[in-house]
Amino acid sequence: xxxxxxxxxxxxxxxxxxxxxxxxxxxxxxxxxxxxxxxxxxxxxxxxxxxxxxxxxxxxxxxxxxxxxxxxxxxxxxxxxxxxxxxxxxxxxxxxxxxxxxxxxxxxxxxxxxxxxxxxxxxxxxxxxxxxxxxxxxxxxxxxxxxxxxxxxxxxxxxxxxxxxxxxxxxxxxxxxxxxxxxxxxxxxxxxxxxxxxxxx
Amino acid sequence: xxxxxxxxxxxxxxxxxxxxxxxxxxxxxxxxxxxxxxxxxxxxxxxxxxxxxxxxxxxxxxxxxxxxxxxxxxxxxxxxxxxxxxxxxxxxxxxxxxxxxxxxxxxxxxxxxxxxxxxxxxxxxxxxxxxxxxxxxxxxxxxxxxxxxxxxxxxxxxxxxxxxxxxxxxxxxxxxxxxxxxxxxxxxxxxxxxxxxxxxxxxxxxxxxxxxxxxxxxxxxxxxxxxxxxxxxxxxxxxxxxxxxxxxxxxxxxxxxxxxxxxxxxxxxxxxxxxxxxxxxxxxxxxxxxxxxxxxxxxxxxxxxxxxxxxxxxxxxxxxxxxxxxxxxxxxxxxxxxxxxxxxxxxxxxxxxxxxxxxxxxxxxxxxxxxxxxxxxxxxxxxxxxxxxxxxxxxxxxxxxxxxxxxxxxxxxxxxxxxxxxxxxxxxxxxxxxxxxxxxxxxxxxxxxxxxxxxxxxxxxxxxxxxxxxxxxxxxxxxxxxxxxxxxxxxxxxxxxx
Lengths: 201, 498
Fold this sequence. Notes:
The complex is a heterodimer.
Chain A: H1 16-44, E1 48-50, E2 57-59, H2 70-95, H3 99-127, H4 135-166, H5 173-200
Antiparallel strand pairs in A: 1-2
Helix pairs in contact in A: 1-4, 1-5, 2-3, 2-5, 3-4, 4-5
Chain B: H1 8-13, H2 17-30, H3 34-64, H4 66-69, H5 76-109, H6 117-139, H7 149-179, H8 192-223, H9 235-239, H10 247-251, H11 253-267, H12 274-285, H13 287-292, H14 305-339, H15 346-368, H16 380-407, H17 414-440, H18 456-488
Helix pairs in contact in B: 3-5, 3-6, 3-18, 5-6, 5-7, 5-8, 5-16, 6-7, 7-8, 8-11, 8-12, 11-12, 11-14, 11-15, 11-16, 12-14, 14-15, 15-16, 15-17, 16-17, 16-18, 17-18
């Protein structure tokens, strides 16, 4: 009689969700970078005009009557790293199997996402421009709208991770890590958008 | 208590053939089996290949004598040209290799399935419905330059959806290779095809999103202001790069992986220069640089010496490096044959001839991007795309022939495959090379009017038409061989390693 050992169990997949999130984030980063590049190209091709004080010649890209609400834009810039920090806190708590803090951190990440959406809506409302009013307006809504969609994606991610956490998934380290990675990516992407669209205009 | 959950297919099988058929269709539609998802991609791409080649035949006939043929009228010509270009790249080349990778890669890396099979499945359906949306919009005069505004919007959404589908499938492939390899299988030990699937997928993941970002701008502008991107007329200007070089290079990376995989098997030796081969494949993937920056970088022999050096340097990086990669893979495969004891198989002939065609296409792009040749706007570019797509198709057929035992449990008749490979070679050369010559005679691209097609020009277009016809025969013939092998071929008695 031949006695054979049972087949070894299949190796556990290695950090699938983290790797997939990293690849998806890289793709999303390329969307934003491609849009920023187009923005810069159109701005570079814009004609020039005298500034309102008449002292210098500037690119006639953003129409003269438009003012970007810098407070709301800067609040967004600050909120993104706070969201990422909360996501990292969730990772820290998950490593220590500290379920309450993990859930709290994920919930705050979600609220940070909500705060960003709120700030973005405030920007739209204070600027009071129409989508079809001009070249700048169309591009502004396109790029900030895409960024907003990515933030909504982060909120969904936070919510899913939160419910998994309160549902008792203690071995959910991979999802929490991936969630933090996505928030870091968003922070980096928004930093670029903030500088090009809100600061350089 | 033990609960035995009966398999839904088995339960309904007894109810008659009708319901069994419905269950079978349902299982195909919702399947998370990587082989089934891969086969769906492959089947739909091969079907598209035949349709696109038929369009090629019709355009060839129209160009032979536009005054007499008049197959297309008015607005139909630019719309169908858009369909032809979209079909070649996004309905044939890209999904075909994605499908092969989804079917084969898990077998090569020792994984039970592709990672995130539902993402891969979503990728297939998104690509299919996106492609159908593009087809419908173009048929209804809604593509680039089309007059039906709503259908132009549908076209843009369709292209974006098809791209999202390809991206989702690529994400699944890359994640599988990075995370689900069997224990001890390191990245440098990957088979050449899996390596090409990894580099090709990552290159796709980094380049296609740029197109999606552009589509967002164009779509928002088109549906609202129509100020920035020239409305429907500007679509080709801003999205045309995604259907030409170097974007197409990204999609042929896996074709070279097929040759690198099949050559050592044919020569019955281990690839002696394996690191060099893997480097060669990675070099082709550097086409992502040109694709993501939407630039072809021409050699412009004007300006100062510094300008000339800069021009040559950028041209070499963006166009020369992918060519070097293709050359490395082809030469190392030949070296492999020289060192081994080769028994030439149908799979090898297809993969090798496909790679040679791709080489001619990439080399053609080097000539096209020299500004002094003044080839911009001529059919030379169509010739390049045809070399790449038809060459890629030949390689893909080689891959299917090579992995048929693993995917269908049957062996395809080698002699017949070699015969088809030779017809395919002739078809590719006839379809593409006359367009190279016609390009030097300034035959314009993307149109059939505004040019004197008499004399030798008629001959080049007749030959090109004939080439498309031969290629249709090749694809249909191969599919017939495959079906015949599945139905009556020699079954493979044991599990075949991929």
